[in-house]
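Teaching assistant's notes for section 4

Start the section by putting this record on the projector. Ask students to predict, before seeing the second block, whether MYND-type domain-containing protein will look compact or extended. Collect guesses on the board.
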Amino acid sequence: MSVTLGYAEPLDDDFDKEHLPSKIGGKPRWLDPTRPLSVDKVQCDECTNPMVLLMQLYAPEDEPAEAFHRMLYVFICRNGVCHKASARRCMRVFRSQLPEDNSIYTAQESEAAGSCSDDEDDMSWSLAEQVRPASVCVVCGLSGSKACSKCHAQFYCSRAHQVADWDAGHRAQCGNTHPQMSKSAVYSRKLQHMMYPELVIVSEEEDASKLEASNADYDDDDDEGSDDDGEDNEGIKPEDMALVPVTGEKVEDSEVDVDRAFLLFQRRIQKNPDQVIL
Ligand SMILES: [Zn+2]
Ligand SMILES: [Zn+2]
Ligand SMILES: [Zn+2]
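Reveal the predicted structure now:
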């Protein structure tokens, strides 16, 4: 089975022009910029502060047709105390998708592609001319439904981020005619630090030669000759696995399968320890 590996790398100069990036940190880039997510959807259940973007993944699908463009967003609370209380209450994942026929994007063949290519991978997408992106929070990029009451030129998702921006530097620049222009380097850096550092996720096919040496150890498909699962698996027994079913009900088999799949997944990614996502 061929697997795609993702590596986190520094941004290059063209990254700002990328509408459909896979990336870690920074502010979200919305698949549909006219409808950014609102803050009430990503409030931490523990501390009630807005969560911030951990990563977004561009993961288009051929089927179903409405997922022609598909973006996954992972939000997380930056307050470590919340994670100790309950990881589930301070993380959230969203999926956003668009069919090929939509009013947001127009396709262009990217410059690198040859003239005879009509491969989707060689297409680049730009916003259609009539698209007017909605206002977003200057701090976190969520829907900016509130504006600074003095200058009405800066938008926020929440009171918390208005206060944070005021302290970071808006206090000094509020009321300037071109507030975006006058942001000092220190102010910009303070805003950046409220998000996770931004890195692009670059994906590539797994290097098959790295697998060959030990593939037979855990490849499910070629052990038909052996009598059962597990024992040719370098001594890993079901009870050593990370998640053990707590009851003996019907679901047990499928849960063991999930454990096994996860274990195989872990072993596989260990061969490429730098990569961040499969
Ligand atoms: Zn929290
Ligand atoms: Zn915000
Ligand atoms: Zn202002």
